[in-house]
Design goal:
By secondary structure, the chain is of the alpha/beta class. It has 12 helices and 12 strands. It folds into 2 domains: 4-97 and 289-306, 3-Layer(aba) Sandwich (Rossmann fold); 99-279, NAD(P)-binding Rossmann-like Domain (Rossmann fold, 3-Layer(aba) Sandwich), CATH 3.40.50.720. Helix 1 (12-19) packs parallel to helix 12. The two termini are 25 Å apart.
Length: 311
């Protein structure tokens, strides 16, 4: 039986590095085969997952030898961390390893949504010339509002500021005298929503944040503003967002995360033909470069914990 089970895709060079020291089962198909997954982890000491593998009481009851869970990313809502702590299982996220990738996605999404010109390829190829329909806005001189001001949001802020945007943020868990506020204005949520031309969400999904961007908050956004969510599905009410976009109460949105993942045809049908809406499959933090960094950090964490070394 394997020492370490890997249930989702990662950089294969990192897998080989882990296999130098431990017996490894690398099978990205396990995330979609629960029965096989439970069989595989029964004697495993380590488990490596992304965000789709649900590590709950059922799995932890079977994985009686588990010592560490390496998370290829940072969100932990798919892992029962409280039960892991009770069992003495270390949960090791790859903190910061994909921050640059997410920050770049945020900037690109804001530019695409605000400028509006980049969805015209098919029209132009067919002989249309919709110049007046595609006149968008510049981002320089406008305001970006960041909900949450952790590492990813700070990297996004630096990039947006370099492009001439004014940046404000709301983070009640960050002390007002923290150095992070030196170049960014701390505001309450109402001010952020009322002043921002682009809003990007950078908070975890909790009981307090579920449905935060519902009909009321979306309705308070500027009609010419855009919304970007790379954090977690469930924070934005997708039906309220779709309604605002269809009715012209919001200029655009980019959604990388969804209440239902993977999005199936039934759930996805609500997004069909919605204007100025970008949908991506939870990919903001995944680039060639970040996959290498995330995979190496995760393997290093798992190797060191199983070998009794400091991370």
């Amino acid at each position: 039986m394997p020492d370490v089970v890997i249930t989702e895709f990662m950089d294969e060079a990192a897998v080989l590095w882990l296999a130098e020291e431990f017996d490894v089962q690398y099978d990205p198909a396990l995330v979609d085969d629960r029965h096989a997954l439970l069989d595989s982890v029964s004697d495993a000491r380590g488990l490596i997952v992304r965000n789709r593998t649900v590590v709950d009481a059922e799995l932890l009851e079977v994985a009686t030898s588990l010592e560490v869970i390496g998370r290829l990313g940072v969100g932990l809502d798919n892992i029962d961390c409280e039960l892991c702590e009770h069992r003495g299982i270390t949960v090791a996220p790859a903190t910061g390893a994909n921050a640059d990738s997410v920050a770049e996605y945020v900037v690109a999404a804001i530019l695409l949504l605000t400028r509006r010109a980049f969805s015209s390829s098919d029209l132009v190829a067919r002989g249309a010339w919709p110049r007046t329909d595609l006149v968008g806005h510049e981002i320089a001189g406008h305001t970006a509002g960041l909900v949450g001001f952790g590492e990813i949001a700070r990297k996004a802020a630096a990039r947006l500021s370099a492009l001439g945007m004014k940046v404000i943020a709301h983070d009640p868990f960050l002390s007002t005298d923290d150095d992070a506020w030196n170049d960014v204005r701390s505001v309450d949520m109402a001010t952020l929503v009322g002043e921002s031309d682009a809003i990007s969400i950078h908070i975890p999904l909790t009981d307090a944040t579920e449905g935060l961007f519902g009909a009321e908050l979306i309705g308070s956004m500027r009609p010419a503003s855009v919304l970007v969510n790379t954090s977690r599905g469930g924070i934005v009410d997708e039906r309220a967002l779709v309604a605002a976009l269809r009715e012209g109460r919001l200029m655009g949105a980019a959604m990388d995360v969804f209440t239902v993942e993977p999005v199936d045809t039934s759930f996805g049908s609500r997004f069909l033909d919605v204007p100025n809406l970008i949908l991506t499959p939870h990919i903001a933090g995944v680039t060639v470069e970040s996959n290498v960094r995330v995979s190496q950090m995760t393997v290093r964490n798992v190797r060191n914990i199983l070998a009794g070394r400091d991370r």
